[in-house]
Amino acid sequence: MNLIILFLTSGIILLIAYFTYGKFVAGKIMINNKNITPAHRLEDGVDYIPSKTPVVLGHHFASIAGAGPIVGPIIAIAFGWIPAVIWILVGGIFFGAVHDLTSMVASMRHDGKSIGVIIQKYIGQQGKQLFLIFSFATLILIIGVFADIIAKTFVNNPGVASASMLFIVLAIVFGMVNKLTSDKKGAFVITSIIGVVLMYYFVYLGVQIPFLLDYKLWVVLLMAYAFVASVTPVSFLLQPRDYLNSFLLYGLMIFAVIGVLVANPEIKMDNQVDFSTENLGYLFPVLFVTIACGAISGFHSLVASGTTSKQINQEKDAKVIGFGGMLIESFLAIISVGAVIVISRTEYASRLSVEGPVTMFADGLGGIISSTGISASLATSFVALTVSAFALTTLDTCTRLARFTFQEYFEDVDHKAGKVLSGNRYLATFLVVVLSVLLLTSGEFTTLWPIFGSANQLLAALALLAVAIWLIKRKVKPTFVLIPMFFMFAVTLSSLLLFAIQNFNKGIYVLSVLAGLLFLLSVVLIWLAKESLKKELNEPDQHLEKV
User: Fold this and answer.
1) What is the pLDDT of residues 147-199, one digit of tens each?
2) Could you tell me the CA-to-CA distances from 228 to 17, 423, 461, 496 in Å, in that order?
């Protein structure tokens, strides 16, 4: 079997799913442009800013993608490439795209607030507090880990650092020019073309003028950047940087497809399926935790209900951004699988343990892209830089999301301090940065990171739970949400239980206790949801709003 068959078949399936199942889901949640979006109703020039669909799609796609749809699928191929592909396609269409779109629209119907606020309204105040604490802790962990990864990457690859800094300058200029020419017909297309051309030129220029700084200084600069990106208007830095950066991934995917069409590489990895591996454990639940981005990822609900829902111009744009963005990520995950199944299983296993998934992806895809006439070294460097550039997107987006989460937690605190903490974005961001730096300097993030996979998928299950309760109370049959919800709870609860037992046996009691607490958190929120629905049945609300 040739790789071209895998790519074409997957692409056709995802495209058909967008126009059929995407239409079905959009109809179930009654997406309608007559509903004025929060970006217009609550426009404040900082977080709530109505924006063009391609710009919001670029921001959303860049924020949810990162290295996730690359690293996860390549690691999970240890179980076999066929179950990995099946989960990416089935999970992406019926789980991830539903999760992302419904989270986004539910947020838009609730003033662009997070899933935590939706839980407060339909499940209760305690549910909101528990969810926001969990979300905030997860985001702080991501910020600390990615600050470390990016700083080390910049030290080891100063050309990537200089290109990333040039991207930031370009994004600011692009945002300013776009704002000044917003009333000029065709100006957005022209500035976009110029911006994308300059961005690709800066990839080359960055290698020529490397920034040589030490690790600690990079950490300081990165956290300062994250602070600025969190408090400034989203259209000033965060949104234009993500929009332009998304063209790196679009370009990578286009080059990959062209390379496959030209080279027509053969799939050399065998079709064997292993239901357990020595390093990863059992296929269930590990496969469904390892491949998160590309299939379904709880982090997406934080982005969808955090930054994205505050920028959407018309409600129908949500289908393109939420459902479509997820399916694009699924195709990127398929490309990731394709980059490594052109080698044998034996070579895959030996190289993965030595090189790691990102290097394998860069080498594999670089080799495929080189068939278009581009030098192999340049193609490999381009792929590696694209992956690194998106790590910075994760950092700045998570900082802003953590700020939102922190402010929302204190919105209902009837005290002067609560009003200050919920209303001051500078103070909230400062505290987010301080906590992230403390975690980073303590070194404890390396101990805590292994639990992230299970915690991330628990976020997905809880987001689907919140959406399901919202739909039930709006008298909408939520089967299309309940099926992925029950499956994800089965995956995460099984994963957390196994994780707790394994780490207890290894003597790593911190992770064992954390897994137990997350297991308890999910049980409590399920119970609160059940009680909320029981109350609804006993005391039906005669004044239900429309979906």
Assistant:
1) 998 898 888 888 888 988 999 999 999 999 998 998 888 899 999 999 999 99
2) 39, 17, 32, 36
Contact 362, 378 (CB under 8 A): no
Q: How many CB atoms lie within 10 A of CB 475?
A: 9
Whole-model pTM over 0.90:
yes
Number of Cα atoms under 13 Å in the Cβ half of residue 337: 31
At 370 the three-state DSSP class reads helix
Which residue has 């609550």 as its token pair? 42
Q: How large is the angle between the packed helices 283-290 and 81-91, nearest 10 degrees?
A: 60
Close Cβ partners of 7 (under 8 Å, ≥ 6 residues apart): 257, 260, 334, 335, 338
The sign of the torsion formed by the CA atoms of 531, 534, 539, 543 equals positive
| Secondary structure class of 281 (helix, strand, coil) | strand
Q: How many residues in total does the chain contain? A: 547
Angstrom CA distances, 278 to 66, 78, 98, 263, 282, stand at: 28, 10, 33, 35, 9
C-alpha 500, offset from chain centre: 26
3-state secondary structure of 282: strand
Rama region for 264: left / alpha / beta (φ>0; ψ in -120 to 50; rest): left
End-to-end Cα spacing for the chain: 47
- Residue 442 CB contacts under 8 Å (≥ 6 apart), including other chains: none
φ, ψ at 525 (rounded to 5°): -70, -35
Q: How far is CA 318 from the centre of its chain?
A: 16
Per-residue pLDDT reduced to its tens digit, 454-469? 999 999 999 999 999 9
Report the alpha-carbon distance of residue 436 to residue 384 in Å, rounded: 26
**What does R_g of the chain's alpha carbons equal in angstroms?**
22
Name the 3-class secondary structure at 277: strand
